[in-house]
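To whoever is on call:

I kicked off a structure prediction for a single chain this morning and the downstream step that reads the tokens threw a length-mismatch warning. I double-checked the sequence; it's 116 residues and nothing unusual in it as far as I can see. Pasting both halves so you can look.
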Amino acid sequence: MHTTQEERGANNDSRRAPVVFEDILSAAELIRSHARRTSIVTSKSVNEATNADVYIKPENFQRTGAFKFRGAFNALSRLTKDQRQAGVLTYSSGNHAQAIALSGDSPWYRDDYCNA
């Protein structure tokens, strides 16, 4: 039986353990009530142009306009109390920075984690 990265202590070590399927399930459960659920759509014209069945996952419908919110929220939520109190720094002016800012500014994060 596999354990998640968090259970293996990988969050506190710069040498990350490999991601296993349980990590993905754990992240999905954690972000379920915070990330928007996006549908899978198709396009007749794209299918005809490519002569294939193309499935599109429009993550641009996330609040930050990109899938980055899922990873940012998952990462911030897994920080230890000491790590949360030390703060987060991101080197991005794009989607990742927006996702970190939105995740860190949410009442869920501030109330439950920064004031813990």
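Update from on-call: the warning came from a stale cache, not from the record. Cleared it. Sanity check on the structure: Residues 43 and 54 are 7 Å apart (CA to CA).
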